Amino acid sequence: MHEPSLPIGALARSVGCNVQTIRYYEQVGLLPPASRTAGAQRRYAEVHRQKLSFIRHARELGFSLPAIRELLALAEEGDSECTRADRIARHQLEAVRRRITLLERLRAELERMLEHRHGRRVRDCRVIATLADHGLCAEEHHEADAER
Amino acid sequence: MHEPSLPIGALARSVGCNVQTIRYYEQVGLLPPASRTAGAQRRYAEVHRQKLSFIRHARELGFSLPAIRELLALAEEGDSECTRADRIARHQLEAVRRRITLLERLRAELERMLEHRHGRRVRDCRVIATLADHGLCAEEHHEADAER
DNA sequence: TTAAAACCTGCAGTCACTGGAGCTTCAAGC
DNA sequence: GCTTGAAGCTCCAGTGACTGCAGGTTTTAA
Predict the structure, then answer these.
(1) Mind listing the pLDDT tens digit for each residue in B17-37?
(2) B89 φ, ψ to 5°?
(3) Using CB atoms within 10 A of its CB, is residue B144 exposed (0-12), middle (13-18) or buried (19+)?
(4) Residue B28 Cα, gap to closest chain A Cα (Å)
(5) How confident is chain A (148 residues) per 10-residue block, as mean pLDDT?
(6) Neighbouring-strand partners of residue B44
(7) Is A43 helix (H, G, I), strand (E, B) or coil?
(8) Which of A13, A49, A99, B122 has the most C-beta neighbours closer than 10 Å?
(9) Overall average pLDDT of the B48-53 stretch
(10) Is the dihedral of CA B122, B125, B131, B135 positive or negative?
(11) CA–CA gap between residue A76 and residue A136 (Å, rounded)
(12) Looking at residue A77, what DSSP letter applies?
């Protein structure tokens, strides 16, 4: 067996992240240490690629590193109940939904700002005015993000 | 005139942020320094409240601090052309739209993950499986966020 | 053998705050 | 005037998830 043969750069290219990120994941214990050549360079096996791919995919879905850590641990032991993983995913989904709602409001307001610009001088500028006077926006979006 | 009379805590409450944030804005030069009491406590005037409100509102809309700095400068001199402010807002709107598109995809995938869970053991868990195997997601959302 | 590309460690920086330690000042009640 | 507790002060470190750099070493192909 000569399995672990992927240098860090090739691994990075293969999952679409950069090398510092991989070293960072190793440092914080998300990714198990690679084996090393005589000259101390990292060489990765297929199992690393799979785990890293899992992590990156989860990151793209917006999971935090602590959440991913837990998901990885759950994935490891295939016997345990799925409910915990479900709960994490559901939590994430709710966060995503909240964020979308918020962003939709922002989009609406920005569009309104840009549509209604009638002045070409700042003093009549809707963009500035809207920002200056919170009362000008139709919906109130005060409630505080609470997220991120 | 006894204008500047608002202590930092009251100002914070009135715009819905916390006091450290206000001190931070002063530190990075977004908010002009408040006048001080004999005992060196900050006292704010109405103009500060307006400016801070502008900043917070812009932050809620997703503007970065550098962008806000520029918008504030523009708002200051009411004579200049509005186009710059427009460009900033338009740029921001595009970013918001991209973000929404991305998040909609994430939401769809998370929902799919959660709907199709048939196993109650991790080894059959759709959540874990989806994360482990990128091929399982219908749309591809690889292109790299590029945003935020 | 040589040269360039890729790798290594260690540390600092990013963004927009947030939190804490340890101290001082203010305002209200007595 | 005195006390007390809330609110303020400065300075510094930490957050999350990386990213970038300096200065050196290893690998690989020509």
Answers:
(1) 999 999 999 999 999 999 999
(2) -65, -40
(3) exposed
(4) 20
(5) 83 96 96 96 96 91 87 76 82 82 78 74 71 56 32
(6) B6
(7) strand
(8) B122
(9) 95
(10) positive
(11) 53
(12) S
SS (H, E, C) chain B: CCCCCEEHHHHHHHHCCCHHHHHHHHHCCCCCCCEECCCCCEEECHHHHHHHHHHHHHHHCCCCHHHHHHHHHHHHCCCCECHHHHHHHHHHHHHHHHHHHHHHHHHHHHHHHHHCCCCCEHHHCHHHHHHHCHHHCCCCCCCCCCCC
Is A82 close to B127, i.e. CB distance below 8 A? yes
Q: For residue range A80-102, list pLDDT tens digits in order.
A: 667 888 888 888 888 888 878 87
Single out the residue of A85, A67, A65, A66 nearest to residue A75, CA to CA. A85
* Contact in structure between A101 and A146 (CB atoms under 8 Å): no
Which candidate from A74, A100, A127 shows the least CB-CB separation from B89?
A: A127
Q: Give the pair of three-digit tokens for residue B101.
A: 């598109």
